[in-house]
């Protein structure tokens, strides 16, 4: 699984302040830490960036690439002008996160992506908001990928994001996302995929095991990459194929070979069984269910 480090984010107090103060030190330190642990991309999330967004994105891209110029950056903001400012100074191929499945957004953004020969995240958030199931996701994907192709962007430069929802709010959506991921190559051969992995655990005290378990399931379904917390060392180990025992346990839950946490030894693997059963909808999510 390819990993996109999510931590250079304006909502993080230290990073948000560094953006505001144009202080390169915390930003470059975090970029170097992400390189050291082996992330494949570094996401730069400015949020809305309504005021001074273009100048800020240009500065952050240059600041990061002063110390890390061999890992592509993901330009992440709702400010289209800021995205273009970042693309104009980025060395190599950037990844634009994201182009929504809304005509008023993609008709503006797709020519820009093509102009700079960037890769793009096709976010399946349509005119009606969150798609209800895998079929609505497929319909939005067809529309957005076709429009991208018409703009000169081939499938191989498109990362489709089916949107992950929190397990404690919209639990059934998690299976719809898995089902769509399995369909993607039939819909858009050669396209890649990505997701905001930590969305699954928003608002829960069980962030890491839920993120780790769902990443395993998504990879099995064909997911190419995930936007992750680079400080979660176990998650990175799983993504790099270093914890086959955990992956095998989650797969056995998916295949019905393990139906109860008591069937495996050790609290660590039992927690993965609990998380997997919740994601699969075999039990309703509750904080107490996850507790050992």
Automatic annotation (TrEMBL):
<dbReference type="GO" id="GO:0042558">
    <property type="term" value="P:pteridine-containing compound metabolic process"/>
</dbReference>
<dbReference type="GO" id="GO:0032259">
    <property type="term" value="P:methylation"/>
</dbReference>
<dbReference type="GO" id="GO:0005829">
    <property type="term" value="C:cytosol"/>
</dbReference>
<dbReference type="InterPro" id="IPR011005">
    <property type="entry name" value="Dihydropteroate_synth-like_sf"/>
</dbReference>
<protein>
    <submittedName>
        <fullName>Dihydropteroate synthase</fullName>
    </submittedName>
</protein>
<keyword id="KW-0808">Transferase</keyword>
<feature type="domain" description="Pterin-binding">
    <location>
        <begin position="1"/>
        <end position="263"/>
    </location>
</feature>
<keyword id="KW-0489">Methyltransferase</keyword>
<dbReference type="Pfam" id="PF00809">
    <property type="entry name" value="Pterin_bind"/>
</dbReference>
<dbReference type="InterPro" id="IPR000489">
    <property type="entry name" value="Pterin-binding_dom"/>
</dbReference>
<dbReference type="InterPro" id="IPR050554">
    <property type="entry name" value="Met_Synthase/Corrinoid"/>
</dbReference>
<comment type="similarity">
    <text>Belongs to the vitamin-B12 dependent methionine synthase family.</text>
</comment>
<dbReference type="GO" id="GO:0008705">
    <property type="term" value="F:methionine synthase activity"/>
</dbReference>
């Amino acid at each position: 699984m390819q990993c996109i480090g999510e931590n250079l984010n304006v909502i993080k107090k230290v990073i948000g302040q560094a953006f505001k103060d144009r202080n390169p030190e915390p930003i470059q330190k975090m970029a170097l830490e992400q390189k050291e642990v082996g992330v494949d991309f570094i996401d730069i999330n400015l949020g809305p960036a309504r005021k001074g967004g273009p100048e800020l994105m240009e500065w952050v891209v240059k600041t990061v690439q002063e110390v890390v110029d061999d890992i592509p950056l993901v330009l992440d903001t709702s400010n289209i002008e800021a995205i273009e400012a970042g693309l104009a100074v980025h060395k190599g191929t950037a990844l634009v996160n994201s182009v929504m499945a809304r005509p008023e957004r993609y008709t503006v953004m797709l020519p820009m992506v093509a102009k700079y020969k960037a890769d793009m995240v096709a976010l399946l958030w349509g005119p009606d908001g969150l798609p209800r199931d895998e079929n609505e996701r497929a319909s939005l994907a067809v529309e957005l990928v076709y429009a991208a192709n018409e703009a000169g962007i081939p499938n191989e430069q498109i990362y489709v994001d089916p949107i992950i929802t929190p397990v404690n709010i919209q639990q059934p959506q998690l299976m719809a996302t898995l089902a769509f991921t399995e369909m993607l190559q039939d819909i858009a051969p050669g396209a890649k995929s990505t997701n905001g992995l930590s969305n699954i655990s928003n608002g829960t005290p069980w962030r890491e095991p839920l993120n780790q378990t769902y990443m395993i399931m998504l990879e099995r379904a064909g997911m190419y990459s995930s936007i992750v917390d680079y400080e979660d060392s176990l998650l990175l180990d799983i993504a790099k194929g270093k914890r086959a025992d955990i992956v095998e346990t989650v797969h056995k839950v998916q295949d019905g070979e393990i139906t109860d946490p008591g069937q495996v030894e050790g609290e660590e693997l039992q927690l993965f069984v609990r998380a997997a059963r919740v994601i699969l909808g075999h039990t309703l999510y509750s904080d107490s269910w996850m507790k050992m």
